[in-house]
Amino acid sequence: MAFKERVFSGVQPTGNLHLGNYLGAIKRFVELQSSYDCIYCVVDMHAITVWQDPTELPRATREVTAAYLACGIDPKQNIIFNQSQVAEHAELAWVFNCVARLGWLNRMTQFKEKTGKDRENASVGLYAYPSLMAADILVYRATHVPVGEDQKQHVELARDIAQKFNNDYGASISAHGYGDVFFPLPEPLIQGPATRVMSLRDGSKKMSKSDASDYSRINLTDDADAIAQKIRKAKTDPQPLPSEEKGLESRPEAENLVGIYAALQGVSRAQVLSEFGGGQFSTFKSALVDVAVAKLGPIGAEMKRLTQDPVFIDEVLADGSARAQVLAADTMKAVKDIVGFVRR
Ligand code: ATP
Ligand code: MG
Questions:
Q1: Is 221 in the pocket of ligand 1 (CB under 6 A)?
Q2: In angstroms, rounded to a whole number, what is the distance separating the alpha carbons of residues 93 and 89?
Q3: What number is the average pLDDT over the span 90-109?
Q4: Closest residue CA from atom 21 of ligand 1
Q5: pLDDT tens readout for residues 117-147
Q6: How far apart are CA 20 and CA 64, in angstroms?
Q7: Which position among 114, 152, 164, 235 bears the catalytic label?
């Protein structure tokens, strides 16, 4: 069966939005709106899988919304909303908890990385996170999911859940007139020059909102001074930059900074190296500061302007939620019939 093409993705309101979120996700969201129907979510229910201060969460939710708008997502042409306003996400997640297998979730690297040695003390929600993420995508029967490299495994799990649901309930799906399969198998879209931006302090760790050190990331709301300071302090190695990409092998910090420059400027890594190869890091870093300030400055300024008007932001979210809910409710009615839940 052919499904209508639709894009879904989300960002957690868990702290400071950073360059990795921008290059790996939000910048791609903006590009996709010209060719797809897009639904972009602020996933506040995912956020509380680790503790969030209830006085801080609304601010963070509005800030992610402001980032979507400031980066150029059109809330009329697309849907922008926060997850907790559409209860069907949680409803479908429960059904998916009963479809997904413990063995599948046990393989998820994000859970292992986020819990470390303290697994016994992690929330059940953090463990079941990928099942809610599958519901986020599939409650809209979305076909394409733009994400950074780190989320690939979760989108693949969503495919597994969709497939098992389609198989287990195959007879009921066709008995209710939905043909052979009810859910599409969503595809991760992991594209662009910076699908995994690394920490400025440690080239082996991804840049994250939840990293304790603010020097590990460039926040979208950082001012020019903060950006300059963070880039100047970014970890490097003592050698000059190579002139060819091969020379970046086993130099993760150098590779990361070159990748960031290339992605922000819209040029290839080879072009960056042909310009800066053989030179000192300090020269390259100054140029990187200029590019980062030029590209991120206007976004940060627009985010600040928008967050001063929470009433407007809340209206965007309310309007988006109402439109999302119409779609989600349709899916959920069908799922209830397929599963065998009696409904009004
Ligand atoms: P947290 O540490 O709270 O998980 P995060 O920085 O990973 O925060 P998320 O809200 O989990 O941010 O992810 C939002 C989107 O940004 C996802 O598509 C994710 O793949 C992408 N993303 C996150 N970090 C990076 C990164 N360092 N490079 C590229 N993409 C990233
Ligand atoms: Mg994350």
A1: no
A2: 6
A3: 98
A4: 148
A5: 899 999 999 999 999 999 999 999 999 999 9
A6: 14
A7: 114
H or E element in which residue 102 lies: helix 102-106
Task: Indicate if 206 belongs to the active site.
Answer: yes
- Mean per-residue pLDDT, 276-283: 92
Task: Please indicate whether residue 186, judged by its CB atom, sits closer than 6 Å to ligand 1.
Answer: no
Could you tell me which of 11, 12, 27, 18 has the C-alpha nearest to residue 201?
A: 18
pLDDT of residue 86: 98
Q: Is the pLDDT of residue 177 over 80?
A: yes
| β-sheet bridge partners, residue 7 | 38, 144
Q: Residue 270 is which amino acid?
A: A
Residue (of 252, 264, 282) closest to 220 by Cα position: 264
Cα 207 from Cα 288, distance rounded (Å):
17
- Return the exposure string of 314-323: e unless at least 16 CB atoms fall within 10 Å of the residue's CB, then b: eebbeebbeb
Dihedral sign for Cα 257, 30, 315, 81, please.
Answer: negative
pLDDT reported for residue 300: 97
CB 208 near ligand 1, within 6 Å: yes
Distance of CA 249 from the midpoint of ligand 2 (Å)? 26
For this structure, is 233 an active site residue? no
Q: Count CB atoms within 10 A of the CB of residue 308.
A: 10
- Is pLDDT of 1 > 90? no
- Ligand 1 neighbour 46 (Cβ under 6 A): no
Beta strands in the chain (DSSP E): 6-11, 37-42, 79-82, 144-146, 187-189
Q: Three-state DSSP class for 194?
A: coil
- Position 106 pLDDT exceeds 70: yes
Asked whether the CA dihedral 2, 135, 60, 196 is positive or negative, the reply is negative
pLDDT at 15 over 90: no
Atom of ligand 1 nearest to the CA of 147: 18
DSSP 210: T
Say if residue 188's pLDDT is above 80. yes
Q: Please compute the mean of the pLDDT values over residues 145-154 and round it to a whole number.
A: 98
Q: What is the mean pLDDT of the chain?
A: 96
